Amino acid sequence: MYNDNNAQTIVEYIKNFTRKNSLFMLAYGTGCGAIELPATLTSRYDAERLGVRGAATPRQADLLLITGYLSTKTLKRVIRVYEQMQDPKYVIGFGSCTINGGMYWDSYNTIKLLDKYIPVDVYINGCMPRPESVIAGFKELQRLIAEGKADGATKYKENLDWYRENQKKVLKNWPLVEYNW
Amino acid sequence: MKTSFIKEELLFQQLATAFENVVIEIVRKETVFVYASKEFVLPILLYAKEKLGYNSFSHLSCVDWIENDEFELVYIIWSPETKINLFVKTRIDRQNPTMENTDMIWRQINTYQREIREMFGIEFPGFVGEKEFILEDWEDVPPMRRDFDTLEYVNDTFFEREGREDKQDVRERIAKRSGEEIPDFAKKYSRE
Question: Which of A136, B7, B79, B164 has the most CB atoms around it within 10 Å of its CB?
Fold first, then answer.
């Protein structure tokens, strides 16, 4: 199915298949959208049938959801959390605030474009997205993983200077970790 | 039924006999405003707390009167016996905004003063509190002042999604395309 025209080797196919079916989501709510997640994860919408479930710490998690508006103060912690996560890691931008600022388009303390600061694999629009759209977003992420296109972590490593430059434009006097990947 | 202001009148008399240079106004039932200059705020708050039983502090807020070149500080206190909200209002100079520290009367004023120092840039001499409250690394004009241009700051600092530079109001076009009608009450918000 996903292996048409020998697009992936069989090892990659199996790797992506297993990755897409066990997404551990970090229990970290940044904005108002986090209130949709209990509904998504519990019995009515039951995201665990897609293999999505909660993880307690960044190092155990594969999936980071930025749920709603992100103030510059939270952005510091989000960057820290994202860099602590281990390599198969994916980011979902959740709600219109992460896409273009949403209703905080002229707020002095919330960022407008999430993908300038950390790489985003899937955006879910809506304010707030209902659990159906969240599950649609999970399915879309699984499709991207299966096709081997969800490579945000590689993008972040390769373009770290560009991301750091954008981050430092907002976080002026904040020590950001230097890496020598 | 005619509203009676017996307990409000009593408070008016008590404050008027204790302080000369204040303006007292009974606004409505259980709401009394006191306008005072800034050196009278501390005595009024102390007197109201110790003698009149206004022992509950509700709020301290700030209003930026940029036209008059003044800030207005509003202390709201409440008495559980008379159930009256007492508003103590004072105006301070906008160019050199300093106000007396009052957090020895109620400890929770400390938090409000930290917020006002950060959001309006008003200094409270002799006041001990962490410098940063909500904002971190703020270097611009305090953001709640009215001369702080939020949109200009946002355009300088944050990125904008490409493709929406024209920012057109497409509501009427969409309504026409899909054969819907915009209700009358919503038409006044239209920019076309």
Answer: B79
Give the B-side interface with A, CB within 8 Å. Answer: 134-137, 139, 143, 148, 150-151, 153-154, 157-161, 164
ipTM above 0.90, yes or no: no
Q: Which residues pair with B88 in a beta bridge?
A: B34, B75
Q: Which residues on chain A are in Cβ contact (under 8 Å) with B139?
A: 172
Give B17→chain A minimum CA distance, Å: 47
Domain ranges for chain A? 4-170
Beta strand segments in chain A, E = 23-26, 52-55, 63-67, 90-94, 122-124
Query: What CATH fold (topology level) applies to the domain A4-170?
Result: Rossmann fold (3.40.50)
CB contacts < 8 A (A, B): 47
CA B189 to chain centre: 28
The predicted structure's pLDDT at residue A4: 59
CATH for the stretch B6-187: 3.30.460.80
pTM for the complete prediction?
0.80
Structure tokens at B177: 């395309």
User: pLDDT of A107-121, one tens digit each?
Assistant: 888 988 888 999 999
- Minimum-distance CB partner of B153 among A108, A116, A169: A108
Angle at B23 between CA B18 and CA B25, to 5 degrees: 105
Q: Can you name the residues that pair with B186 across neighbouring β-strands? A: none
Could you say which of B136, B137, B154 has the minimum Cβ distance to residue A108? Answer: B154
